[in-house]
Amino acid sequence: AIGGSAACLSWGGGGSSTDSEEGKELHALGHLIGNQLKDLRGFTPTELDVVLAGIRASLLGETPSVPLDTYAPKAALLLRDRVQAHEAAEAKRNSAQDEAGLKAAAGVDGARRTTSGLVYHELRRGTGAAPTATSTVKVHYVGSLLDGTEFDSSIKRGQPAEFALDSVIPGWSEGVQLMRVGGKARLHVPSELGYGDRGVGPIPPGSVLVFELELVDIVTQ
User: Per the database record, which ranges form the PPIase FKBP-type domain (predicted)?
Assistant: First the structure.
């Protein structure tokens, strides 16, 4: 744990109030910055007070209260350990629920579970060519979590995306290779075929990923 007393942040001047329009903007700014600091989720509220006090002191140009040449390397190791512990705990919490979701998806009429654990559900059979493991493809897709939280969409961007199938997550590569150009499918990708226990951006560690795909074209075989 981080030693020392917990120095709570006090920005002064009523800056913590959200009664004014500027206060609301500042509060929103705090959330935006917090979203960039997800690695700190493994710390307790008391520990975060100490971390935030250090951030405040740095921003205000104050002299560090501890020797950074001694404690910065230790802080990096502490952060690494907390991130790993947090991700492992979150992945464990997700695993039972996600396995139930995979079984439910595999039980839908027309869906099947492959030997790797991928759940593939063909929504519309394509009539064109089928890609290979080294193909570059053009696809429209929507990616979401099991609870329906959307994390990516080429449709919202207004144009299909191009991917080399040998450079994407294994579940994506396997699923697209089961399709033909013009086809649509839904993939339920278990975490071991996705981002595993580390998580990425808005995707929590150990998450099942759900993709609705349309294979628009094969750019190169």
Answer: 134-219
What is the domain count for the chain?
Answer: 1
Q: How far apart are CA 104 and CA 119, in angstroms?
A: 10
Residues in the chain predicted with pLDDT less than 50, given as ranges, are 1-15
Has 39 been annotated as catalytic?
A: no
CATH of the domain at 192: 3.10.50.40
Q: Which of 98, 141, 163, 197 is catalytic?
A: 141
Confirm whether 151 is a catalytic residue. Answer: yes
Q: Which of 158, 160, 122, 123 is nearest to 139 (CA)?
A: 160
Q: Answer yes or no: is 13 within a domain.
A: no
Q: Note if the pTM is more than 0.85.
A: no
Residue 135 located in a structural domain: yes
Catalytic residue from among 2, 49, 152, 217: 152
Residue 162: per-residue pLDDT: 96
Structural domain boundaries enclosing 210: 110-220
Out of 43, 195, 197, 203, pick the active-site residue. 195
Over the stretch 82-98, which tens digit does the pLDDT of each residue have? 888 887 777 677 677 78
Give the model's pLDDT for residue 82: 86
